[in-house]
């Protein structure tokens, strides 16, 4: 087996610049679809891929309008989450007995379940901006048989918030500050740092709340 070829393939999938330059909008849409509901695709780039798609559109490296890019991303995110939802509804219980592997960790499923238990349907909107949780939240929604109409509402709202804000922000900054294209590596590190901090803080908060004695909770 050619492990070097496999390693190069995964390196390509994790490099947003290569995805945009060589795969174009089609590959961006495919990755967004997979990362928004397929448990084995949690490692794919999300937030910074969308931002860079908008940025590269502003500089002409991605030859599509920002309207088409954003609408395509929103559609892919909605369909991806529906895929995760119906997978969770039909086969989600099987994940409970699945062994940990390179493409699946029970910890990720549990993390999303706790997040979902705290925020309910709103988790589907908040999770869009959190790696890993974004992938597993629709699966959890399907596993607990969340009402399809309620899921659809939050699915669409979350996809719009995520799929429009990040590409448009990248496009706007690219037009205002064209030189920003020279700092792609720093942009990626910035997004990784911000999303990681947000995820860690949320998990710590959920853990504290879960471990808090019932008698110590104040009434709302």
TrEMBL record:
Residues 44-171 form the VTT domain. It is found in: Cell membrane. GO terms for cellular component: plasma membrane. The chain crosses the membrane at residues 20-44, 64-88, 153-174, 186-204. InterPro entries: DedA-like, VTT_dom. It is a multi-pass membrane protein. This is DedA family protein. It comes from Rhodocytophaga rosea. The lineage of its organism: Bacteria, Pseudomonadati, Bacteroidota, Cytophagia, Cytophagales.
């Amino acid at each position: 087996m050619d492990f070097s070829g496999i390693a190069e393939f995964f390196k390509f999938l994790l490099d947003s610049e290569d995805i945009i330059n060589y795969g174009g909008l089609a590959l961006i849409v495919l990755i967004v679809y997979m990362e928004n509901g397929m448990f084995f695709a949690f490692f794919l780039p999300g937030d910074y891929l969308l931002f860079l798609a908008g940025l590269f559109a502003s500089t002409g490296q991605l030859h599509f309008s920002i309207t088409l890019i954003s609408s395509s991303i929103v559609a892919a995110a909605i369909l991806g989450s529906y895929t995760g939802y119906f997978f969770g509804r039909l086969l989600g219980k099987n994940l409970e007995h699945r062994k940990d592997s390179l493409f699946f960790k029970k910890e990720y499923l549990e993390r999303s379940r706790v997040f979902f238990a705290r925020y309910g349907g709103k988790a589907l909107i908040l999770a869009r901006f959190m790696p890993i949780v974004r992938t597993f939240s629709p699966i959890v929604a399907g596993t607990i048989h969340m009402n399809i109409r309620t899921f659809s509402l939050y699915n669409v709202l979350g996809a719009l918030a995520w799929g429009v804000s990040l590409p448009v922000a990248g496009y706007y900054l690219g037009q205002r500050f064209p030189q920003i294209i020279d700092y792609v590596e720093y942009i990626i590190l910035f997004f990784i740092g911000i999303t990681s901090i947000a995820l860690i803080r949320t998990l710590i908060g959920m853990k504290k709340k879960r471990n808090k004695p019932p008698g110590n909770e104040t009434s709302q």
